[in-house]
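The following record pairs a protein chain with its ligand, alpha-L-arabinofuranose.
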Amino acid sequence: MKAHVTIDRDVAIGDTHERLFGAFVEHLGRCVYGGIFEPGHPEANEKGFRRDVLALVKELAPTIMRYPGGNFVSGYNWEDGVGPVEQRPRRLDLAWMSTEPNTFGTNEFIDWCREAQIEPMLAVNLGTRGPDAARNLVEYCNHPGGTAWSDLRRAHGWEKPHDIRFWCLGNEVDGPWQMEHKTAWEYGRVATESAKMMKWIDPRLELAACGSSARNMPTFGVWEREVLEHTFDHVEFISLHTYLNNYADDMPSFLASADLMDSFIDEIVAIADAVAAERRSDRRLMLSFDEWNVWYRTRGKREGRTVPGWPVAPRILEEVYTMGDALAFGGACISLLNHADRVKAACLAQLVNAIAPIMTETGGPAWRQTIFHPFAQMSNLGRGRVLKSRVESETYATNYYDPRGTQEHRFAMPTVPYLKSAAVHDRDGGFVTLFLLNRHLQESLDLEVELRGLQATEVALARQLRHDDLSAVNTKDAPDTVSPAALEGVRIAQGRLTATLPAASWNVVRLR
Ligand code: AHR
C-alpha cells in the first residue's frame, strides 16, 4: 500500500500552544494517593511526592496539569484541603464512592507542580458550591495578602500568591452523573456570575466554560450555544471531552474513531464563531480539550467503577492499555496537533493509575503504559508550527458506533484514510517532525512525503511503536514490552522523504 503526503512551509494550520500538552490529576482512585503522593514510599521526598513518578512525569513532559477534578470537583469543599493536615476532615466523595482523607489539597498540588515545573490549572466546584466559593478560592490562591482569605494562605505557610492563571468553571455540568447537574441556562448563569467575580479579583485569569462532556450527549450543540450566549464575554475557552472506546471489539473502527475528535472540534469552533457573529464580535474563543484519552474497559456502569465500603484511594479505573490502544491514542494526538489553531489547551486524562500513562504499585515501582510513548513524543517533539498535511492514502469504511450513545445520538463515521498524519515545523530548532499512524492492520505502507520550501536534508530521529500482538501490554514485571524502537530505512533526498511504515504502527520522524 502506498501513501503520499504534501506539506508546505507556508501552508500552516497554526502554532501549538504550550498548554496543548497538558494532563490531569483528579482525586480519583490512586491518582493522588499512591500515585503522585505517597508519604512513606521509599522514593518519596520530604513532601511525600514520589520521585520515581516525578522522573516519569518529566519524561512524559506535560505542560499544564488540571486539578482536582473531574467529577470529584463538583462535590469538593476546597477549604477541606488546606491548613494543618491533622485538622482536615475526612469526607465521603460521591463521585467515586470513596473516602477523601484531604491530606493532599490545593497547596500541596501547587508545590507538586512547582517541583515538576508544570503550570497548574484549577477547576472550581460549580456543582454543590458556586460563585462565592469560587471567588474565595481565587482570593486565597492569587491575592497577595491583607485580606482574610489571602492571609489564611500565608498563615498556612505559602507567603507568595500561587498566581494560577487557568481556571475551569466546573466540570461536565451537562452530565446527569454530575453532582448538581444543571441545564445549560442554569449553568450559563452560574458560570457567568462566577467568572465575573473571579476576574474582578484577578483580571489576568483565563477561564474555560464547560462544553459537552461527549459528542454523543443528547444536548451537544444546544448546550454549547446556550452556555456561550451567557458566558461569551466572560471566558476565553470552551471545554470538550472525549474518551475513545473499543466496546465493539472492532479494531479498524476503533483506530478510525480519533477522527471523530476532528469533527467534534470543528463543530464547536463553528458554534463558538456563530455566537460571536450574532454579537457582531470578532472575538474568537479557544478550545480546551481538557479531558481526552482511550477509556472503556473500566468504564461502564457505576458498580463497575467503584469499590464497596467507601475505601480511601481504591483501585478503580486502572485501565491497562494495549498496543492497539496506543495506536488509537496516537490518532488522538494527531487530531489535537492538526487543530492547533483553536485547541489552545488540552489535558490527557489522567496522569497516574486512573486511566493513565503512568502506573504505580503502592509501595512498589512505577512504569510506563503503552500510551505513555505517543504522548511523550508529541509533547517533546510536537511543538512549533503545525503545517497542513495533504494526505493521499487509500481509505477504509468503518462500523464505528458508540453503544453508550442512544440510537439517535450515534454518529455515522465516513471512510477514513489508512494514514493519519501531522507535521510540525520547529523553526527555531530547524526541525520538521512527522507523526504518522498506519491504521492498516495487515499491510505496511510505502510513504512518500513531499516537503515544499523546507530545507531538511537529514533524518534526525526515526522511531516506531508496534507489536505483533495488538493486545500486548506493559506490566510491572515487563514494563518495556511495548516501547519505541528505531524505524529503519527512512531516507530524505531532494525534498522527498521515503519510508515504510509497518502495519498497525505509530511512527515519529524528525528531519533537520
Ligand atoms: O477522567 C475520569 C472522569 O471522566 C472525570 O472525572 C469526568 O470529568 C469524566 O467523566
